[in-house]
Specification:
This protein is of the alpha+beta class. The protein has 2 helices and 4 strands. The longest helix is centred in the middle third of the chain and has 12 residues.
Length: 58
């Protein structure tokens, strides 16, 4: 069975529109916390990719 892909934004990312300010995604933090509590869930069902590819929406 194919795994779903989940892209999480790394904490402390920066936005060029707001130089010197670091941001976090509260939803990504909640999902990371859930997966930390159930690591077998992540290993069996989800591929976790990095969301550090820059801004995807313009």
């Amino acid at each position: 069975m194919a795994k779903d892909t989940l892209f999480l934004i790394a904490p402390g990312f920066e936005d060029p529109k707001f130089p010197g300010t670091r941001f976090v995604c509260p939803h990504c933090n909640q999902v990371e916390g859930l997966l930390a509590g159930f690591p077998d869930l992540a290993a069996r069902w989800i591929f976790i990719g990095s969301g550090s590819r820059g801004r995807v929406r313009r």
